[in-house]
Specification:
With 295 residues, the protein is an alpha/beta fold. 33% of the residues lie in helices and 15% in strands. 43% of the residues are buried.
Length: 295
């Protein structure tokens, strides 16, 4: 084999190996800054929130979209396990999946993460025609602290500012459905996640703020339908978080479905190596189909 052929084959092998090690890069078609340059100019480059869009195959696309919020205690982001891989799984349902890198940590406390989540919802709706989605089939999916942010977006929303010169801000920020996986819900009960509360609200937040940021206290009849997943032996974010949100939704007559696992430790993501836990995306797919979102 001559040197040229060896070079080509070596380069090809390296490329294949790189793709095998980086499956999250295979199907992401588009990444963009969340905020326009004028509004985002003061955010350090490393902290800039972004949207990474994964489009399903055209043959199975169903015009639904989901914005994915990875967890990480409002300080880190589990982008691979609770972001990119989840996006690819929802692509197989025909859903356009959008992974949000949101701001978090002591420099970006409330309301900054909520602003990013609301902006993401508005942005997806703004690109509905371009991305071949139905703006009325745009939901949100969150894990752990990302689940808290998703539930916050589902309980703090508006119809958009019709007079804004920014066309994105004219869009509604209300998600059409919520999928919450081992979510943090309460900021006041003893079963809250202390790390998430600290990084979001600070050392000694006002009690009224703590109550307001407990999503179970803000549920109304206008709260979007929800699908909940949790493990009863979750030691980091106790299952009482999902139970309290379920009760609040049920009491407000909001459609809700919840699945609890006897053995579901925190942070299992898609749980590819667990035959039982790995079934939750299929349960979610059935729920979405029954709600007419996969037609």
């Amino acid at each position: 084999m001559n040197a040229f052929k060896r070079t080509i084959l070596t380069g090809f092998s390296l490329c294949i190996g790189f793709m095998q090690l980086n499956p999250s890069l295979l199907h992401a078609q588009h990444t963009q800054d969340l905020w326009p340059e004028a509004q985002g100019s003061e955010i350090p480059e490393a902290d800039k929130p972004t949207l990474t869009v994964y489009f399903p195959e055209k043959e199975i696309a169903n015009e639904s979209a989901v914005i994915i919020l990875p967890g990480g205690g409002y300080t880190n982001l589990a982008m691979e396990k609770e972001g990119y891989r989840v996006a690819e799984r929802f692509n197989r349902m025909g859903i356009t999946a959008v992974v949000l890198k949101y701001r978090r940590g002591v420099n970006y406390r409330h309301p900054v993460p909520l602003m990013d989540a609301q902006r993401a919802i508005r942005t997806v709706r703004h690109h509905a025609v371009q991305w071949n989605i139905d703006p009325n089939r745009t939901g949100i999916l969150g894990f752990s602290a990302g689940g808290h942010l998703a539930s916050t977006a589902g309980t703090f929303f508006d119809d958009g500012d019709s007079g804004s010169p920014d066309e994105i801000e004219q869009q509604s920020s209300r998600p059409d459905f919520m999928i919450l996986v081992y979510p943090v819900i309460s900021m006041v009960e003893d079963y809250t996640h202390a790390g998430s509360r600290f990084h979001l609200l600070g050392e000694d937040p006002d009690p009224a703020l703590l109550d307001s940021m407990s999503s179970d206290t803000r549920v109304t009849a206008q709260t979007p339908p929800a699908f909940l997943i949790h493990g009863t032996n979750d030691q980091a974010v106790p299952v009482e978080n999902s139970l309290s949100f379920y009760r609040a939704l049920k009491n407000a007559n909001v459609p809700v479905e919840m699945h609890l696992y006897e053995n579901g430790p925190h942070g299992f993501g898609l749980a590819p190596d667990n035959p039982l836990l790995s079934g939750w995306p299929g349960l979610c797919e059935t729920w979405l189909r029954n709600r007419g979102l996969l037609d």
